Amino acid sequence: RLMLFHQTQPFAVTNSNTRLLISSSPPSNRVINLDHGDPRVYERFWRQTGDKSTIVIPGWQFMSYFSDGSNICWFLEAEFAREVVRLHKVVGNAVTEGRHIVVGTGSSQLFLAALYALSPNDAPQPISVVCASPYYSSYPSMTDHLKSGLYKWAGDAESFDKEGPYIELVTSPNNPDGHVRRSKVNKSQGFLVHDLAYYWPQYTPISAPADHDLTLFTVSKSTGHAGMRIGWALVKDEEVAKKMTKFIELNTIGVSKDSQVRAAKVLRAVSDSREQGNSKDSESFFKFSHKLMASRWKQLRLVVDRSGLFSLPKFSPAFCTFFNQVLEPQPAFVWLKCEGNVVDCESFLRGHNILTRSGIHFGVSPKYVRISMLDTDDNFNQFLDRLSAIQSR
Ligand code: PMP
Fold first, then answer.
1. Ligand 1 atom showing the smallest separation from residue 110 Cα
2. pTM of the full predicted structure?
3. ipTM above 0.85, yes or no
4. Which of 129, 131, 181, 220 for mutating ligand 1's site (highest number of atoms within 8 Å of CB)?
5. Where is the Alliinase C-terminal domain (predicted)?
6. 8 Å CB contact between 192 and 152
């Protein structure tokens, strides 16, 4: 997979079929890698923000390991915590009152911290970790990578029927298929982890502030700053927050202050851009990103509808409290199904130099693939051209 990742740079391949298939744009058969959800789509917005999203850190600053010794999460920068609370209030997507904030090196680190914190430490067997399929492809590998004695991947939540404690991951809207989700198992001894990486107005109508025991968010998908490696957890239970903090202490002795302060500045710019409206020098981030996703989805639907070769999930419009209107979901990924007799959709698209991720990594059939909608304009446009060309053959 790493090798594929490095192929995002344009490079020549000698596949004469692909060249023949492209009719409306200049011939290009470079590989388009839409396997990862790399959020390059927002770069254009951040370029125009200038000083509003820029920080300068003098050499003497942030040298200590510690941020606030009186906080459970002793490495949490107060400035970052303040902006997290403010942004959730501005967007209306999560309750922060009565919650401890734990910062992590991406929500990936917080996911592992949550598994550690929720696992009973004296159980004879590892606790089962489940998620309804199709599930985010990293959950099984992250859960089992170190063969922990505390927790173990147990697959699809729909078919989980073991007695005793378990951890259920609820991703809403879901990666890969974009649907809004609730927990599926519904037994008494379950711990829920809500992964709300995509519960932001550009992807899905905001219905109500999320009010769960343990919720994960990340800047990677909200503002698009995946490289900053900052995520946060909202945690109700003090003991769970303490154990998550302990995990991060043992893992990386805290989280980069430079990144937290940069994240604070970026979140502040997002909240300010909402509150200042759409003036000439301050465009609202969510208006920008919503419009962009809407335009991409509109173009994609046109191409897919014309094809007869592929199909897309169906979504119901819903009222969005942030935009104050009924809106359609417009997920960060396309969950595309190859119709007809194509069995392996990933291979089929790879034959057209489009790299995607097969349904098998998400616990379902290879007739499905996940395709990133967050790549650069150039890659997205090339992808659309390539897809239209396949059907016009
Ligand atoms: N959860 C989900 C559902 C995701 O899609 C991703 C990113 N692909 C993550 C967590 C990890 O995000 P981060 O960059 O914050 O580690």
1. 16
2. 0.92
3. yes
4. 220
5. 32-390
6. no
